[in-house]
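Lesson 9: reading folded outputs for more than one chain in a single document. The general rule is that every protein is listed as its sequence immediately followed by its structure tokens, and records are never interleaved. Here is the first one.
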Amino acid sequence: MPPSTDTEELVQKVSLYNQKPVLLHGYAGPFIVLYAVWLFMWGSWIQNQPVLAEGDLDVNEGGSLPGTPTDNGTMGEEDVLKRSVPNDGTLEAGFIGLAVIGVLQTLVYLFCHWSVHVRAFLTCTKVKVSQAVWV
């Protein structure tokens, strides 16, 4: 049977691509940078938050402020928690941000498996015709 010239062929166009290194793939490299920027921002945000709220400066029964050692030199569990963990939602916001980045990365990775065009765009560079010709 002679070759068909119809436009309804399975292969209509062929392009050459070179694969990028894994860290430069669109589902890996940009997200590494995004995770690093988010963790840096979250860490600096937590460091700049006040640890005690305004109402936490009440005097305890023993006459000491919360977060300071009691008369026997020890700190209670509640005092340690008030002193070490910010209570304004910064931890939850940070974890929500990490979850959103993770979901986006998962979707991008799945789109690479669902679509050849997305995979070629995110993982390869197109070869020019002059580069593809070898003598």
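And here is the second record, again sequence then tokens.
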Amino acid sequence: MELQLHDWPNLARQRPCREYRPDHPGMVEDNLKSMAELARGNGVRPILASVLPAAVYPWRREIQPIDKILALNQWIKEYAEKEGFVYLDYYWAIVNGQHGLKADFTSDGVHPNAAGYAIMAPLVADAIARSKPQPSKKSPLTPMLSGLYLWLFWLWRPTRSTSRGFMIDVHNA
């Protein structure tokens, strides 16, 4: 599976959680739970990703993010496992020995650069592949019945195209 992200920074950008304050513990977790439950309720299989490593925020040096990031990532991982969601772990792929981004993957210590996104892209592709529904092993007739359904739908459709030879592969869709 090849994943092409033409505008990766805009697709993957996460808005900072400005309302998160130390006096409101659990707010981020509650927001993530709400988003995941809304997604699942609307037929979307959420992929929960770890927070990227950051040893310091250059614009707010008084903030010590390491312990908070590690704790939040642990919570996200456990929540994803408990709820059956895919967990995407960026953290350990791009962290340095001081719990920040590896120097090759960032220009400011917080945000990934092109090399960082190049490391993250295959992780995203793998998470997407893991989030797809797996074929049911309950009955050997399932693939045959799916193919029969598509064939019957093709015969039934109200307007027939003059083109022939299209095929829908249910198992790779």
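What the second record shows: The first strand starts at residue 47 and ends at 49.
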